[in-house]
Amino acid sequence: MEHRLDPRQSAWAFVNVYCRADAGVTGLMYNISGEGMFVLSKARVRRCECVDILVRVGTDAEDWLCLPAMVVHRASSGFGVMFRPLDEPARKVVEQLLRPPLEALEAPGEAGLSNETGQRRLAIGGENGRD
């Protein structure tokens, strides 16, 4: 039975997964909804385990934002998570990932996505990505 209420949006972005068994395993966000996401990864996660998924939100090495989540299903290719309560910056990132790519590009200066290299990338803050 499908428990998801929100529609999923394709969202290809590299993420780092932090869980009990693995610290900082790279994964690929495959899709996202307002409630969770599916991550293509070999991270050793278990159902009902709490994980932190870090998403790059800028160009500097420290420009990562944490999306706290709980694993709700596991497949051979990756795992699905449901978000735990998100703070305001994390909620904005999720909202931006849910916007169609061209719409996100038309809002300079807002938290948005850029497509300068042909892929969806997050940029948070003012003109240079910082407040």
TrEMBL record:
- A Gene Ontology MF term for this entry? cyclic-di-GMP binding
Q: What is this protein called?
A: PilZ domain-containing protein
- Database matches in InterPro entries: PilZ_domain
Q: From which organism does this entry originate?
A: Candidatus Tenderia electrophaga
Lineage: superkingdom = Bacteria
All copies of domain PilZ, residue ranges: 4-98
Pfam families cross-referenced by the UniProt entry: PilZ (PF07238)
Q: Where are the annotated segments for Disordered? A: 108-131
